[in-house]
Design goal:
Layout lengths: L1 H16 L4 H13 L3 H14 L4 H14 L2 H14 L6 H19 L2
């Protein structure tokens, strides 16, 4: 957990220098999700969506967050948008990696 907190600090400092850097914003949102700071992660992704509105991975990660928060309707809506933006599945390898990374989180939440 300390590693994730340190990573958020480093990414925040990087974003102070380059506030609209898409990759830094995406990684910060992903890290915030790992820390279960879902609202902050969604906020970061909303800003990222304004910068790169056609990137399917933004919507995919938003769907993962909404699913984790129990917002099934919003999760399905964002999954649908992600698939609309990437109908050929060119980012499937990335989505699978994200799924694998958060799968253990989902299992531990279900058992709680």
């Amino acid at each position: 957990k300390q590693w994730y907190q340190r990573r958020v600090r480093v990414l925040s400092r990087a974003l102070e220098q380059h506030p609209k850097h898409p990759l830094c914003k995406f990684h910060k949102a992903s890290t915030l999700l790992c820390l279960e700071r879902c609202d902050s992660a969604l906020s970061e992704l909303d800003e990222l969506e304004a910068i790169t509105p056609t990137e399917s991975l933004i919507y995919f990660l938003k769907a993962k967050i909404h699913r984790k928060m129990g917002n099934s309707h919003l999760a399905m809506m964002h999954f649908s948008w992600a698939m609309d933006l990437d109908p050929q599945g060119s980012n499937n390898h990335i989505k699978e990696a994200i799924d694998k990374h958060y799968q253990s989180d989902d299992i531990s939440l279900e058992n709680s």
